[in-house]
Amino acid sequence: MAPAIDPRTGGRGTKVAIIGAGAVGSAVTYASMIQGVARHYAMFDINESRVKAEALDIAQGSQFAPVSTVEGSSDIAVIKDSDVVVITAGAKQKPGQSRLELAGATIDIMKSIVPKAVEQAPDAIYLMVANPVDVVTYAGWKLSGLSDGRFFGSGTVLDSSRLRYLIALACGVAPQNVHAYIAGEHGDSEIPLWSSAMVGAVPLLQWGQTVDGKLLDDGVREAIHHDVVRSAYNIIEGKGVTNYAIGISVASILGSIVRDEHRVLPVSSYLEDWLGISDVCMSVPSIVGRAGVGPRLVPVVTPREYDGLRRSADSIRDVARQFGF
What we know:
- The protein is of the alpha/beta class.
- It has eight helices and 16 strands.
- Strands 3-2-1-4-5-6 form a six-stranded parallel sheet. Strands 7-10-11 form a three-stranded antiparallel sheet. The chain has a three-stranded antiparallel sheet with strand order 12-15-16.
């Protein structure tokens, strides 16, 4: 796959900046480089030795991927004139720390990072990955002064991938043949949209038995949803961080932006009267392309799903309000 070239870059090739060179930021850069998303990658982190080492480690494997360059710096000027900026930098959740406490610490980081980033790359599309992503996306968007289509979060793209993976295992099909979305918060209040889920051409709610002979009923679906919600906790308990799957999923979002693919992705963006939900950033199926987030699609939902989405929005909004956003 050839690196994408946008004529608006003057033929220099697309530049993607990654703010934060931790496990997630490095995985995003690595996955994007392998997929040939961009021609140039610029990594920024305040830890100079870490960011330069991560960039060098990735760059030295570039012979085996589509042609690209990778650089790392502790000077934010490295992201200058980027076409897309990915923000992975944020506070690391400590044992016993609440979601509210994590949100406050990460928002404080955004107050420093976002204005400086926009100054260096004023025409970029901004993709927030730092958690809690919905609240931080809303705060970051407000701090940026950009249009709501140009500043959005990775949302439940990974959650939806986890959901499709588990449905595929249960049904004995490839994950690529499962079409199902998690909407709402990227977190405990997220909602699986079972009523619109499909396996191939078959509505999920009409699917027969699973591979182990069980009916795909409410109990089995609830167990799948529970495993989706618990996935990150289980991985963190085992290895301390989740990074590979989020790296691949963010690279996929970047590909849709850079190549203007207009893919339908459940990213977290500002909603205004979406099923009556307003003034909050949360995930709904949306068309993503070179201009950022386009139309937010409105699927058919059941009353139970609708109520869950409203509660999820209220939960996100309540946290944002506590920090003045």
